[in-house]
Every structure is written in structure tokens, then in C-alpha cells.
From TrEMBL:
Molecular function as annotated in GO: quinone binding; quinoprotein glucose dehydrogenase activity
Domain annotation Pyrrolo-quinoline quinone repeat: ranges: 95-703
Signal peptide: 1-23
Protein name listed in UniProt: Pyrroloquinoline quinone-dependent dehydrogenase
GO CC annotation, single: membrane
Region called Disordered, residue ranges: 30-74, 433-456
Cofactor(s) the protein needs: pyrroloquinoline quinone
Alphabetical UniProt keywords: Oxidoreductase, Signal
Similarity remark: Belongs to the bacterial PQQ dehydrogenase family.
Length: 731
């Protein structure tokens, strides 16, 4: 029996590596160049003085997707006072925001479904969004969608940004708006995480667009639709939409995109956007902007390298290029008048020598912007001079921390890819005294000329880390002793001195946690009644190496706006051209490319419950089984719960349950919050890489998950929104 379990574990390790590696490496091959000679190291010297593209460089056709006019600018005094929104204090039956409430805690007070009866949960209906790759199209699909629910309706979006209203009890489509997003506008991923519900303080109740759906698109438009009919709100922008490429400057379709629901704070809808990683130093700007939610008119901008200029650029000018972008879901704070913006690092992710001091001060940070001015009120940095792609993918969660004297501190939970979780005072950005942060020594000064590393990095010392100890050679794994030996040799050939091993040029280095480690865009769930945090996370190291420009050219690494770019030239993940710098980057999983097996032993994905009051882990379990995984991508059908890579988060309920999909076994599961045991599961028609949600209609509780699959995770693509409920005779 023990021998069978070991074999199954080994097979699972192989399958997981295949899933991770295939998703991250163009052509599914290992192209690390290996040791570099001193001659190659000095080959192709590059002038260090690079000029950004000319401000007058035209945007490529299709970048302004709807050919919209320039948006006018107004003063903050012209923005009307916002009426209370349904997401501020939602009805128990509703889920009106991406994370349910303005706190974004992914907690529902519904309790009809419990550990005692969840085993009888059945599919109530399946709704099809209609968005899948057409014949001949490359699979870039990963819907990642969480519907919202207000009243008797679900509002959701397809992977290509069509917006739909659905009857929440039957799944019948009430209306659909075709957004017209084209395949060429898909960046790395066709995804729409959700939409925003907004109630106007100007349009009277009962009139069109009193209640509206605000949505962003992959081709950089911001739209407002009447929630009742789905028709565009004529009073918003130009016929219901505005062009968010205004002021961005030279670009091409797919270089810049939006995938998250924009929050509305005190009448200002705040927009961020993703910029494809690894392309060029002078990539389009990561500017953050605020617009009047009533009219769509521009109010302010936060441009990192022009921090005192909050206006739109003059004609022929653009926002500063290459600055840190923010692609994660933002969280608003109406009481403090802030929006919490998770940032990434500057363009050319693995090389920092060309970044400005202003960029270094706010990269891989949480930045609290004043929603009246766009000026930062505070900044908390999670990685100094990030060259590991440790951008913050998680949405922060607001909560009130109970102090010993009976008072409460307005606080927030900030997860990271490092597995470090920071608990901050949301008014000041300082760590709560109960959750101190230490600056610990880190490997420095680095080995790349003129690109020194920070001598210290921040560590959250009280909140349990989501991760395992540093890798050791004895941790190497394989399907046979020969495979294990191969990985041990690979380990020895690489530079590795623990977390924050600096980038290397003459040999590979191991990045652990990897850029998909710790917590990513699925974020965390928090039960405000019990003070318990639910976190699922990844354990997937990477094997990276910088290459000089001559080698990058030989490998065919080109930026997405290069006329010679092809999909095999690199993308948002994996290999990158990093044009306009001296180096390109080659990134692969730390795996045995011949067997398709990760070199570190499983588990590769975990879920755990943490009591925020005691700072203790209540339970910790592997997340994901081997049923849909196997050697060389072949499913084993084995139900062993050893832990697979996962993307997507969870929801917690007053019924004592956690609902989560996320893993590469294509299942949704219900977990008993007290014990961590799986008490129900169902196989989905596609990968469940999305955050689930729950709601109630006519006294019946439902659970919904978008089973859209995910090309990055190598899970089956589908267009199915799957909704569950208990049979009528079960109470």
C-alpha cells in the first residue's frame, strides 16, 4: 500500500510540473543557455543611454478600439456627492461586489448550506457565456470571472468582455451587451474578473442608468450600462464609454489591458491596467486614473515619474513610460477617501539599473491614493528593488482589528507572492504593533554590473508565512533515482542562496518562491465573525537566467510591439526580450524537462486557516488531487490529495464552509472550516480558476463558480458558469 501511494505521489509530481511548465514556456521546451563564457558576457556592448519612444509616435490602428474622442477634464468640485452604494452594507442574500462588500472579504452571512447537508448539493443550472477560442485561434482563454448578484439578478462578463444579466434562480439570460472586443486585443490572457454595480446620485430612481454596470475591457475602454436594460448610458463619456488609451502614447493592441472591476470611491471610478511584463524598458505607462462615475469625465492621474502633475498630458505628450503598473483588483475606502493600489515593478522586470528613484520607491508596494487628488497618502513596500516579478496580484481586504482596550483599528490584510502577509493600519500604512515587520538581511550587492540589490527586505514576523523552508539539495524529487540525480545536478549548477537570490548572467539562478508562489490574484477570504483567514497558495520555484542582448537576439526574444514578434518570442510570463536594456530574460519552471516533473517535491499547492487573533495556523492541507493530472499530461484518475498549483480564491460562509476550486484537478470543493476536511466536491466542465461566490434567492442559497479553464494552468477551457443549490426537500 505504501509503495502504491509513493508511486501515485510521484506521478502527481510529474503531472503538476507539466501543467506549470507548459503554461509558462513558449514551445514547451527548455531554452536556458547554461554557463556563459567571459567572451559572451562582454559581447554586444550596449549604450546605456536609452531614449523612450517619441511622444509623437502614433498609436497603432485598433489601440483606440472605438475611435473615441479625447475625454474632457473636470475639477473634483464638479463630482457630485455619492449616495450609499449596495456594496457598503449589502443585504445578506446579495453579493454586489467582487469580494461581496466594500471590505472585499469574500465572506457571506448565508448559512443554509452546512457541513451536515452540503453532500446533497446539486447543480441548479449552467449558464454559457459563449466565449471560447474559435477554430484556428490560439488558446489565450482564462475567464477568471466572479459574478455579482443584486436583487434577483446576476451580472457577469465573458472572457472577451461581453456583459450579461442573468436570472439568479434559473440562469435565464435577461440581456447581453456585446462589447466588440477583438482577438487581437487579447494580451497574455482573455480574462474579465468581474463588473461593478453603481447607483447614480444624479439620475432619479426609475430612470435609465440610475443603477448601472461599470465595466472595463481588454482593449482599454471604460463602459457604463443601464443595469435594468443593458443599454449604454448616453450621459457617460461618448455614448456610454471612454477611451483609456488617451495619454498612454505609442503602443499596439494587447500591450495594455484591463481585467479587473474598477472600484468607485466617493463618486470617483478608479482605473488601473496591466502592461505586459518583460517586453521593453520603455513600455506604456502604469498610470492610475480617476474619473467621475456619473459622466466619465477625467478628474486626476497618478503618474509615478510626474507625481505633482495630476492632469492629462497635453496633446503630443504622454504619461511617463515604463513605470510600475497595477493589474490586481483595487479596494476602495469611502470613509478614509482612499483607494488601495497594489503595484508591480517597473518595466523590464528582472533588471532595475535604469529605474528612477521615484519608481523604486513605489514598486511592488501597496499605495494609498487620495481619491480627491490622486496623490499618494502613504506607501508600504513589500519588496525593495524587485527583480523577481513579485508584483502584488492580490486584492487587499479591509477589517477592523480589535485592540486590547476594546477599541478597533481600521486595518487591512495584504497578501503577497512571497507568502509574506502584512497587516497594516489602513489610515497610515504602518504595520499594526501586533504584526511587526522587520528588515532582514538579503543577498547583496548582487552580481550584475551597476545593478545592486537592496541589503535588506521586509519580513512579517507575526503572521504565519505561506510557504516552506528554503530549498535544499535533499529536497530534489524525481520519478526515478536518475531523475532525482538530474535535479540534484541542476540544483548544483544554479546560483541559490535562499529567497532573494539575485539575478545571474553567467549561470541560472533559482527563484523561490516563484513569481506564481504564495498568494496571487485569488486573494484571501476573511471571516469577520471569527477572525479566521483562509488562504490558498502555491509552492512552485522557477529557474531563471539573464542573457546578454546578443544571446537574446539569437533566442528570438522580441517585444510584443516589434514587427517581427511572434507568440514564441516570449510574453507576459516566461521568456522576455526586455528590449532597451542590456539583457533579456529566460524563465522556466525548476523542472526536469525530459520527464516533465518539478524538481522540488510536492505539495505544490496548499490551503490553510489562520486565526488572526492568536496568529496561529488552525489547519493546513494540500489543495488539489491527481485525478486530472499525470505523466506527460495524461490524467491518472487518482484521488490522492497531494496538492496542485492553483489560481483563484475561496469564499467563506456563516454555515461553516469554505468553497474553493482553483486547483488543476478541475473540481470545486466544500471544506469544513473547523477541520479543513473536504466534505463535498464536484467535477467541473472546465478548470475552476476563478473566485466562487454565494447568494440567496427566494430563501434558497446558491453557490456559483466560473469553470472557464485557464491556458496558463493548462486546464480545459469552457464557457460554463456552474451554479449549485440544495434540493427543495433538504433544509
Amino acid at each position: 500500500m505504501r509503495r502504491i501511494s509513493l508511486l501515485a505521489a510521484t506521478i502527481l509530481g510529474s503531472s503538476l510540473a507539466v501543467a506549470v511548465a507548459h503554461a509558462q514556456m513558449a514551445g514547451h521546451e527548455d531554452r536556458l543557455p547554461g554557463p556563459v563564457s567571459s567572451e559572451a558576457y562582454h559581447a554586444d556592448p550596449l549604450n546605456p543611454k536609452f531614449e523612450p519612444p517619441s511622444p509623437s509616435s502614433p498609436q497603432a490602428p485598433g489601440v483606440n478600439a472605438a475611435n473615441l474622442p479625447d475625454d474632457p477634464e473636470i475639477d473634483i468640485s464638479e463630482v457630485p456627492q455619492m449616495v450609499p452604494q449596495v456594496s457598503t452594507n449589502p443585504a445578506p442574500a446579495d453579493w454586489p461586489a467582487y469580494g461581496r462588500t466594500d471590505d472585499q472579504n469574500r465572506y457571506s452571512p448565508l448559512s443554509q448550506i452546512t457541513p451536515a447537508n452540503v453532500g446533497k448539493l446539486k447543480r441548479a443550472f449552467v449558464y454559457h457565456t459563449g466565449s471560447k477560442p474559435a477554430p484556428g485561434q490560439a488558446n489565450k482563454w482564462a475567464a477568471e470571472t466572479t459574478p455579482i448578484k443584486v436583487g434577483d439578478s446576476l451580472y457577469t462578463c465573458s472572457a472577451l468582455n461581453d456583459i450579461m444579466r442573468i436570472d439568479a434562480a434559473t440562469g435565464k439570460e435577461i440581456w447581453r451587451h456585446n462589447s466588440g472586443v477583438k482577438f487581437d486585443s487579447i494580451p497574455y490572457t482573455a480574462a474579465c474578473k468581474g463588473v461593478t454595480y453603481f447607483t447614480s446620485s444624479v439620475v432619479p430612481e426609475g430612470q435609465p442608468c440610475h443603477n448601472r454596470i461599470i465595466a472595463s475591457t481588454l482593449d482599454m475602454r471604460l463602459m457604463a450600462l443601464d443595469a435594468e436594460t443593458g443599454k449604454m448610458c448616453e450621459g457617460f463619456g461618448f455614448g456610454g464609454q471612454i477611451n483609456l488609451m488617451q495619454g498612454i502614447g505609442e503602443s499596439v493592441p494587447g500591450f495594455v489591458s484591463m481585467t479587473t472591476p474598477p472600484p468607485v470611491i466617493n463618486g470617483i471610478v478608479v482605473v488601473n491596467h496591466e502592461v505586459l511584463d518583460g517586453q521593453r524598458r520603455w513600455a506604456p505607462s502604469g498610470v492610475i486614473r480617476g474619473y467621475d462615475a456619473e459622466t466619465g469625465k477625467f478628474v486626476w492621474a497618478w503618474d509615478v515619474n510626474n507625481p505633482d502633475d495630476h492632469h492629462q498630458p497635453a496633446p503630443g505628450k504622454h504619461y511617463s513610460r515604463g513605470t510600475p503598473n497595477s493589474w490586481a483588483a483595487m479596494t476602495g475606502d469611502n470613509e478614509l477617501g482612499l483607494v488601495y493600489v497594489p503595484t508591480g515593478n517597473s518595466a523590464a522586470d528582472y533588471y532595475s539599473a535604469m529605474r528612477s528613484d521615484k519608481e523604486n520607491a513605489v514598486s511592488s508596494s501597496l499605495v494609498a491614493l487620495d481619491v480627491r487628488t490622486g496623490a499618494p497618502r502613504w506607501v508600504f513596500q513589500t519588496v525593495h528593488k524587485d527583480v523577481w516579478d513579485y508584483d502584488i496580484g492580490s486584492q487587499v481586504t479591509k477589517f477592523d482589528y480589535p485592540n486590547a482596550d476594546g477599541t478597533k483599528t481600521p486595518a487591512l490584510i495584504l497578501p503577497t507572492k512571497r507568502g509574506q502577509t502584512f497587516i497594516l493600519d489602513r489610515a497610515t500604512g504602518k504595520p499594526l504593533p501586533e504584526f511587526p515587520v522587520e528588515e532582514r538581511p538579503a543577498p547583496s550587492p548582487g552580481v550584475i554590473p551597476d545593478d545592486s540589490r537592496s541589503p535588506t527586505q521586509p519580513w512579517s514576523v507575526a503572521f504565519p508565512r505561506l510557504g516552506f523552508p528554503d530549498l535544499k539539495e535533499s529536497d530534489m524529487w524525481g520519478m526515478s533515482p536518475i531523475d532525482q540525480l538530474f535535479c540534484r545536478i541542476k540544483y548544483r549548477k544554479a546560483a541559490y542562496v535562499g529567497e532573494f537570490t539575485p539575478p545571474h548572467l553567467k549561470k541560472p539562478w533559482i527563484e523561490y518562491p516563484g513569481y506564481n508562489g504564495g498568494s496571487d490574484w485569488g486573494s484571501m477570504a476573511y471571516d469577520p465573525k471569527s477572525g479566521i483567514v483562509i488562504a490558498n497558495w502555491n509552492n512552485t520555484p522557477m529557474y531563471d537566467q539573464l542573457v546578454n542582448r546578443a544571446k537574446a537576439n539569437k533566442l528570438g526574444l522580441m517585444s510584443v510591439d516589434d514587427p517581427n514578434f511572434t507568440p514564441s518570442s516570449g510574453g507576459a510570463e516566461g521568456n522576455g526580450a526586455m528590449s532597451e536594456t542590456p539583457y533579456g530574460i529566460v524563465v522556466t519552471p525548476f523542472w526536469n524537462q525530459y520527464t516533465g516533473m518539478m524538481c522540488n517535491k510536492p505539495p505544490y499547492g496548499m490551503i490553510e486557516a489562520i486565526d488572526i487573533k492568536t496568529k496561529k495556523v488552525l489547519w493546513q492541507k494540500p489543495l488539489g488531487t491527481a485525478r486530472a493530472n499525470g505523466p506527460w499530461g495524461l490524467p491518472t484518475g487518482l484521488p490522492l490529495n497531494i496538492g496542485t498549483p492553483n489560481n483563484g480564491g475561496s469564499v467563506v460562509t456563516a454555515g461553516g464552509l469554505i468553497f474553493v476550486a482553483a486547483a488543476t484537478d478541475n473540481q470545486i470543493r466544500a471544506i469544513d472550516m473547523k477541520t479543513g476536511e473536504v466534505v463535498w466536491s464536484d467535477v467541473l466542465p472546465g478548470g475552476g480558476q476563478a473566485n466562487p461566490m454565494t447568494y440567496e434567492v427566494n430563501g434558497k442559497q446558491y453557490v456559483a463558480i466560473m469553470a472557464g479553464g485557464h491556458h496558463f494552468m493548462m486546464t480545459p477551457v469552457s464557457d460554463a458558469l456552474v451554479v449549485y443549490a440544495l434540493p427543495d426537500d433538504v433544509h
